[in-house]
Fold this protein.
Amino acid sequence: MSAELLNGSRLAQRVRSQIRKKLKKLTFTPGLAVVQVGTDPASTLYIKHKQRDCEKVHFHSEVHRLPADITQESLVQQIEMLNTRSDIHGMLVQMPLPDHIDNEAVIDTIVPHKDADGLNPVNLGNLLINREGVTPCTPTGIIRLIELTGEKIEGRHAVCIGRSPLVGKPVGLMLLNRNATVTYCHSRTVDLRVEAQKADILVVAIGKSEFITADMVKPGATVIDVGINHVDGRAVGDVKFEEVKEVAGFITPVPGGVGPMTRAMLLENTLKLAIGG
Ligand code: NAP
């Protein structure tokens, strides 16, 4: 039996159309600012996508391109300036930053009520105490994809492979907040296969192409593949899609699964920040 595909592109389209509807009731235009340091081509492409997404929902967006050798102090000043702008409701600093910049200090500078990525310690802290406000985009998109299955999260065993502050750790907390029983696995986990096999919901975010094979997946499980690995010029997930889809109940494709939902959740966060909710 082949798994049902969780189509992130289609769900993201639906999210954008809901945003457009909500926007009609607003008397102002939500604004998103993106700060880019340096000229990393991948970052430039991601930012272009974010701008295009903003256009699709008629948000104002602007990009602040700063030189790679900018000082920490000047970067912080730029963010502080955006903190005070009343027409900018959400902002983010595109990662990765050059080595001489302290990433955490930069994220700390973004005021929590303009933190479009949901990565400020205040917003992450709220997530920890089950007071979800603005939550990180990829984990929020993952929850939406799991909800798309129509199966409940409560009481199910979720296994998160990967514990990064960007994906693995917050998605585990969001599943826990929804009363799943959560196991975290990482590079020091002793028997990953045994842990993965217990999962009703398996979230894989490790950045290793086709690492998860069919024998690691419980029949009927919901498998969320977060990985984006570039192999021979194409994007490949962390899950060996062709064989895992024969075992799983639901599965996300790469591309077209988590990626589009991450982008849609950035728009949703920006709207949330704009209307103060
Ligand atoms: P990361 O910061 O590099 O974290 C990787 C995590 O995987 C770490 O917790 C690491 O464990 C764990 N890990 C690495 N090798 C492992 C192994 N052999 N067995 C078990 N665990 C292992 O990466 P990330 O930012 O979370 O991203 C993960 C992947 O998702 C990447 O491919 C990235 O491109 C992709 N991604 C996609 C989206 C999207 O929108 N689709 C968004 C963000 C990220 P330790 O903690 O022990 O080192």
